[in-house]
Each structure stands twice: as structure tokens, then as C-alpha cells.
Amino acid sequence: MKPANPPNFDDAAFRRALSQFATGVTVITTRAPSGALIGITASSFNSVSLTPPLVLWSLATRSASMPVFRSNSHYVVNVLASSQLDLCKRFATVKGDRFEGVSHAAGDTGMPVLDGALAWFECHNRSRYDEGDHVIFVGEVERCGVHEQAGEIAPLVFQNGGFHGLTLLD
Q: Domain ranges in the chain?
């Protein structure tokens, strides 16, 4: 295979171009071997396959929670509603117990499902791929659910450095 040509742009130009792609916002949750709950904000979520049901997301290799996510058998992808911007920011920035005061319930595997999430996917940690400065996680969905009012609730979206809700276009 022919090697790729070197980039003709810098990191800032690459980030700016990437920021134009609107992405949904998720909180990925799991439980450490100690029992502590772990959660991180991620906008790198995507579907992969319907059969089997597969999704993917990525995490920076330098993330403090990387060892737990890499070794755990399960995690939950919680898709945030536009009303959950506070949760997005909490799981992206808060040091210490990010779950303090956060309403959630244990899924079938004991992993935390956030109350009010627009949708959730309880996943088996099927495979991981080291690529660049991130690890790509592929999860096999064992259970999923949708908020009972999902059709009436806007998702939380990140684009061009800011958070947005969506309105339906005709």
C-alpha cells in the first residue's frame, strides 16, 4: 500500500474543519473494579452495524479513565438531550466524583444508565483499535432504550465549538 501524503495543513486548520461537522453528545459510563462509577463526555459516537448491532466511540489514549474502559467488559453510551448540557459539562470537566447528585440506574450489567438520556446503549466491549492518539472502541449492543418522549425532545449537538439543540426542517 502506498503511504499517505503528508498533510498540507496544521492542527488548528484540521480542528476548524472538523468542528463544522455536527455531532450528537454522549456520556459513556462504566464501573471501575473498585465499584466507583466512571463517566466521560464523548461526541465521537457512531453506528457501525445492524447485524450484529455494533456502535463505536473513541477516547484519547492519555485519558485517566482509559485503563478502566480498555479492560472492562461493559459500558453504556448515554445519548444526551439538549436539556442535559449540565451533564455534558460535568462529565467533561468535573474532577472527583462526577456522579455526585446525578440521577441514574444500574443497567442489567450493573453499568450506570443516566436518567433522562434521550437514548442509551448497553454494550459489551467487543474490540478496541489503537489509532493515532485515540483508541476506537467497538461495542456490541446487548440492550438499548429510548426516552418515552424522544420524538418531542431535541438532542444535544456540538458544532463549531458550541452546543446546540435541533429543530425539525421541512
A: 24-150
